[in-house]
From TrEMBL:
This is Metal-dependent hydrolase. The chain crosses the membrane at residues 80-110. Keywords: Membrane, Transmembrane, Transmembrane helix.
């Protein structure tokens, strides 16, 4: 899913979370986690891009980033959610942890629905077992390859 959609949906979710928990911090945590989880795309881009300079046009075509066709997405992982639930048990950060949990949960659901990936693509373990190959994760051929 594209960033503007994540921004709008995360903002709406953040308002509800902030109201629900009566916590501005929880609302902001939901918004920032729902939007900035995608910062890992930037890490992947800088790591995989052969020319290593920013190009907005290239950035939105990860299937063309690098010759090895790998995509790590280190922050996109269903495995992190149980850890956030555990963090919510820590006094003093309960609402913030719930805000992050909800922001990440909504983000992953939206990416799963919109990005045409394998059903397990947003599990870090699945990506690792797939050697982080973009074409295996998203059922798309790499540019210039027959797979
Ligand atoms: Zn994402």
């Amino acid at each position: 899913m594209k960033p503007p959609a994540h921004i709008v949906i995360s903002a709406g979710a953040a308002l509800l979370v902030g109201q629900g928990f009566q916590s501005t911090g929880a609302g902001w945590a939901c918004f920032f986690s729902g939007v900035f989880i995608d910062i890992d795309h930037l890490f992947d881009y800088l790591l995989r891009s052969p020319h290593r300079k920013l190009s907005v046009r290239d950035f939105f075509h990860p299937d063309q980033w690098g010759p090895d066709g790998k995509l790590y997405l280190i922050f996109h992982g269903w495995e992190y959610l149980p850890l956030l639930l555990l963090a919510s048990l820590i006094p003093g950060i309960t609402e913030i942890a719930w805000g992050i949990f909800i922001g990440v949960f909504i983000h992953l659901i939206l990416d799963h629905i919109h990005n045409n990936g394998h059903p397990l693509t947003y599990f870090v373990i699945y990506r690792w077992k797939s050697a982080f190959h973009f074409h295996r994760l998203f059922n798309l051929p790499l540019k210039g390859q027959d797979e």
